[in-house]
Amino acid sequence: MKLDNKKIEKSKMSKLIGGGWVQTSSSSKSFKTSDGRTCVKTTIDGYNDANGNGKLDKGEVKQTCTDIDCV
Questions:
Q1: CA 40 to CA 31: how far, in whole Å?
Q2: What is the pTM of this model?
Q3: DSSP 8-class letter at 30
């Protein structure tokens, strides 16, 4: 019995499962607190490309995430 290998194109698969997270920008900045600790603030912007076309379309939500780590 011979099995054929069938591949689904990425654009067609994206319509079924979504295109995933697309990062549009990021930035990091370090700073010192008043008590001398060093912190790093990282901000990432992006959106979930639901249809996988690589564009932010109507109905797709843009998000911003900010994280601050101090040592």
A1: 6
A2: 0.62
A3: E
